[in-house]
Every structure is written in structure tokens, then in C-alpha cells.
Amino acid sequence: MANLRDLRQRITSVGNIQKITGAMEMVATTKLRRFQDRAVASKPYSGEIEELVRRLSGAVQSNPRLAGEAASLFAAGNPSAPRAVLFIGSDRGLCGAYNSNVQRFLDAQLAERKGEHVFFVMGRKAIAHASRSDYQVSAYLEEHVLEKATFADAAAISSALVKAFLNGEVSGVDLCFTRFFSMMKYVPVLESFLPIQSPAEEAGDDTILEPGAPDVLGRLIPKYLETAVNHAMLESITSEYAARRFAMKNATEAAADMKKEINRAYNKARQQKITSEILEIVSGAEAL
């Protein structure tokens, strides 16, 4: 059995770890609420603009001129080019299985696909996985820190993806990120970004656009793509902090349980030492 000094040191060490993880849980909870509010606030707008574009894309498929300058974003890309993936991970660990879940999901999705892929990567954990997996990285978006990202960052990333598609460098673009549903549910997804596709059940739309479809769609489509990237980033960082809060909560509770066990062992060892000392005193007294 460990001596009393070792047990006291372990109690102190575990107590310090408990304080650290407890503080990290509080920080994660605060940031989670902030990012969750932003994600929830942007969801109605992003949902409405996505639904509108998806409905109008049916009409554009049959008459590309309606989209004006944005018509090429609805057309199939260069078939000989690889497909691009915007892979969003985190910059830091201590968030449970968040990174490993999205990494395993991406690996599984790519294993089912044919053809080459190139990656636009956000997050140090994501680029580390891409390097380990020998993925072809077209760009590491190191200057766009997910936690500090703004709509301007999303617009810049969207512009880079659109440029690669229009130049024929990639045949299409997918977004791989973690979609946030609730504090306890956040699921990795791989969603199509380019070319813009209409739902299979919708062949067209009878919406009247003023001043005209080319003018409206020419301004709407870029904003839609920027919004899609921005919302993917928001949902990813919200999911990351939900995972970090849960991981730190579990770590704090585990430290508390461990501290109780060590305290129990310490009290038992202390009692044994006291009993042993009493027996020695009694034995010494009897000898006299």
C-alpha cells in the first residue's frame, strides 16, 4: 500500500486537475452559449436562402440564361479534374471524440468514392490528419482561425472555392463539417457545395423575379454560397465547444471520483498506522 505522503500528493494532484478541468468546463460552456446563439440566429436566414436557391435552381437547369453570370455554377464541372473538399476541424484538442469522429467519417466517405480529391483544410487537427492520411492538400487556410472567423472569412473561402471550380481546377466541391443539433448531438456531414443542384422532385419554379432573374440570381448566388460556408463554420465551432464542455465535465467528475477513492485509501492507511502505533505503545507498556 502507498505511504501517506504519496497518497497526500496524489490527492493534491487530482484536486488541481479537478480545478483545471472545472475551469475549462466553465469556459467551454460560456463560449458554447455564444456560438450557439450565433448559429441559431443565422439558421433561419441560411435555411431560407438555401431553400430559395434550391427551388430556383430547377428553373435554371432547364434555362441556364436565367442565372446570368452565375449560370456556370449550376453546370457540371471539369470531369477530368479532382473533386474538392472543404475539411473543417478544430485547432485544439481536449474536446473528446469531436476530431476523431469527423476524421473517421471523412475517411469512410472517401473510401466509398471513386476518383481523386483535393482538400481545402481549416484547423490544425484537420491538417494533421490530412498529412497522416497523405491527402492532397490544395490549401491550408491557416489565416482563417475558426474561433475568430467572421462572415468576411467565409466570403474569402467561398470565393477561393468558386474560383477553383470556375477555372476547371476541380470538378465539384463538398463541405465536410460537423452539424450541430443540440448540446448532446452533433453529427459529421459531407454536403455538396458546387455545382448547385436542385432537389430531384422539383423540375422548376414559378416564382416571379423582379427586376429579372439574371440580376437577382447574379447577386443571390454568391451570397448563398458565402452563407453556406459561414454556417458550416458556425456549426462546427459550436459542435466543438459542445464536445469540449462534455469532455471537461466528464473529466471533472472522474477527478472527483478518483479523489474520493484516494481519500478513502488515505484514511484507511492512516487508520492502520494509528492502530499500529497504539499496538506498539501497548506492547511496550506490557513489556515494562
Provide structural commentary.
It is built from 5 helices and 5 strands. By secondary structure, the protein is of the alpha/beta class. The protein has 2 domains: 4-20 and 247-287; 25-246, Pyruvate Kinase, Chain: A, domain 1. The protein has a 5-stranded mixed sheet, sandwiched between helices. The two termini are 32 Å apart.
Task: Provide a compact summary of the structure.
With 288 residues, this protein is α/β, with parallel strands linked by helices. It has five helices and five strands; from the N terminus they run H-E-H-E-H-E-H-E-E-H.
Could you name the key traits of this structure?
elongated; 288 residues; 2 domains; 5 strands; Pyruvate Kinase, Chain: A, domain 1; alpha/beta; single chain
List the helices and strands and how they pair.
Layout: H1 4-62, E1 83-88, H2 98-111, E2 117-122, H3 124-132, E3 136-140, H4 151-166, E4 173-182, E5 185-194, H5 213-287
Parallel strand pairs: 1-2, 1-4, 2-3
Antiparallel strand pairs: 4-5
Helix pairs in contact: 1-5, 4-5
